[in-house]
Every structure is written in C-alpha cells, then in structure tokens.
Amino acid sequence: MGNTQIHQRPIGRRITPQRAQFRRLAESADIGTVTRAQLAVLAQSLTCTGLINGTESHLLVALINTVPAESFDRSGRPIVFKSNQQLAFEIGRSVGRVSRMLSSLFDAGLITMQDSGNYKRYPIRNGDGEITDGCGIDLRILIVRYAELDELVRQVRAQKKAADAALRRYRGALRNAHYALSAAARLSEDSLSRIGARIERVSNIVGIAGKASSRVLRRATALLEWLIERMMQLPRRSTEAQETQNMTCPYVENGMHKQITTRHPFDESNQERRSANAEQLSSPKAGSASKWAFEESLRRGRSKINQPRRLPQAMVALQDVIRAVPALKTYGFAPSSWADLARAVPLMCRFAGISEDARARAVEQMGEQQAAVAVAVTLEKYDRQEVSSPGGYLRAVTDRAGAGELHLARSVFGLAARNSMEVRH
C-alpha cells in the first residue's frame, strides 16, 4: 500500500499584502457618516464601473441589507455573520460560487473578512452585550471608501453620457455629409469623388462607431462638419484674408512670403502648381502643393535624401506652433508639451490622409519634434486648401530637410502672422 498523504486544511482565506492593507483601512472607518441606504444604492451602481459584475453586486447588496440599520450608527459594527450556505440560498447561487465572489469582493476592496479556525462566523461581545469584534464579513471599508467609489460612479456616468452625445453627433454628421455630397451640384464630378473618398476614409478610421472612443468621434465629427462647410461653399469661420496680396511677415528671420488662396478649393489645380512628388490616396491625378508655399520649390527630387542631415536654422516654441496652426484646435488637438504634439502626429496624419511611410520618413529624417511641426504645418495648409496632397507635401518637406534647405521656422512664423492678420481684419 502506498503512503497516504494528508493535506492540512488551511486556516482562513489567503492573505495578500493588498488584503492586509484593506483590513487596516477598514479599522479607520468613521462609523455613522454613511447610512445603510446610501451603501445599498452605491452597491447597485458599482456594476457600471466594471469593478464588479451583476451577481457580485447582488451579493454585496444582500450583505448590506443583512446588517441592521443601527449597526451603521456611531456605536455600531457593520459585520455580517451569515454562512456561505445561507448567503447562497438567499441569492440563488451555489456555495462555491458565493465563496469565490466573496474573494473577488475582498480583492476589490469592497469587503474585508476575518475567518476563525473552524470557519465559523460569530460576534465577540463585551460585558454589556455590545459587539466589539467578530469573525465574519466586515463592511466598514465601504464606509471609508464611500466618497471615492461614489465619485468613480459619477465619473463613469458622465463619461458614458459624453460618449453617447459624441456618438449621436458623429452619426448625424456622417449622415449630413452624405446628404451634402448628393446635393452639392456646383462642384465637379472629380471634386465630388475626392470629397466622397475623404468621407469614406474618415468612416473607415472610426470603424464601428459604437466601439470608438469619444475622443476619436469628436475629431471625426469636426472633420465631417468641416467637409460639409466646404461642400456648401460656406466662408471660413474667421474673416478671409485678402487674396494674392504680398505681405511681409514680422516674425520671419528674412525674406518675403506670399499668401495663396484658392477660390475653388475642390476644383482641379492647374499644372503650374502641381507637385512632382505629390501623393493622393483618393485620386491618382491629384496633387498640388503650392509652389508659392513657405518652403518654396518643394518639388525637389529624392536624390538628395542621402545627403548629410543639417540642423535647422531656427527653433520655434510650442506656443508659436499653436498660434500658427489653428487647425490643431479645429481637429480637437490641444497639446500642452512637445510630447503631446508628437503623440498626436499619427492621428493628424490619418485626418490629412498622410501615409505611414511618409510619416516614418519624416521622423527618421527630422526627428520627432521637427517632424511633428512639419505635420502640423501640413495639416494647416491642408485645412486652408493650399495643398490637395498632404502626403506629397510632407515628402517634399522631408526631402528638403535631407538636403539641408528646409526653413521650417519661416513657415511657422509666416502662418502665425497670416492668422493674426485674418483675426484683425
């Protein structure tokens, strides 16, 4: 016969550092500050936070209702002494399921437990018959964490409300964009096809709207509303600057800039303003980075890309970039640091239709900070309808950076001066 191995039964539940911390926290409870009714309402609302599921919430409510209301007064002790078998009978679950749910509630910091050596739950009373301690399910930690958990429920509900509002607005903007596309009779077929491709690209980026974040939905809604305004040929929200007028930019180191405004932004650009390196995802014929853009003659070949990288002539501050690129605010970006701007670059590229390869080449050639500024400038010019191929424009900027002929600071200061003049006029 083989040796009989006897497994010693453990005494009580497994104690982890987190559970020990919850026990210590429960001892600091100020009993009498929260009523039983408040805790019951909170337990029912915790399912929306994801801390517990519906069955665990049902068990927690049963535990709270088991304790007499006077136990939550100053001299009370909100401890449950019911067995797992009795709790299982009351909520209609098995004993093993109740034991596992109690452990989950313990790990979530919603209850604490003190088991006796024989797994019995009983109170410990003083000479006056008052409960001073006991082995059971302690609910005092709910009193300690009531304000924290109640605020968490409020935040989750507010986020859900904002997400629902963003979803409704996005769906309405998408529907209105399709209506506007079918009703825009003034535009050429080529312009309508390009706009339709942009609307489709925004829809593909969002994917399933019900699963998208509210941040993505808000930015997609802003872009769709912007496209609707363009299709309806509405004026810009700020006063339009004077067209084709030469102006000296006070913030530029040296040189003169020209302002380019396109009367019919969705019509075919003439060959004179077409970029050799332009790329357009929606139309093989599209391309048009203006030759009068602030980095003049962007139509340089890629043969210079292997030349030694040179440092930019001037550095710009983040506030200058924000002032020069109001499109950041239009699309829902509010960077407070260079790191925030760099993290927003992938989404800016998706909104402008810039390919991943073009973005990667810009980061490799110019570094993250300068590439973020270049993408922001490209987004602003795309928003102004000065370039119809943002990807081709960014590739040309990258080529110029590789050739050491890029003056990105001039573009930033020039755009800032133009925006300030538009606001004044």
From TrEMBL:
Entries under NCBIfam families matching the protein: RepABC_RepC
SUPFAM superfamilies per record: Winged helix' DNA-binding domain
Pfam families registered for this protein in UniProt: RP-C, RP-C_C
Lineage start: Bacteria, Pseudomonadati, Pseudomonadota, Alphaproteobacteria, Hyphomicrobiales
Residues in Plasmid replication protein C N-terminal domain copies: 13-184
Highest taxon of the lineage: Bacteria
Domain Plasmid replication protein C C-terminal: 318-417
InterPro entries (UniProt xref): RepABC_RepC (IPR047611), RepC_C (IPR021760), RepC_N (IPR005090), WH_DNA-bd_sf (IPR036390)
Protein name: Replication protein C
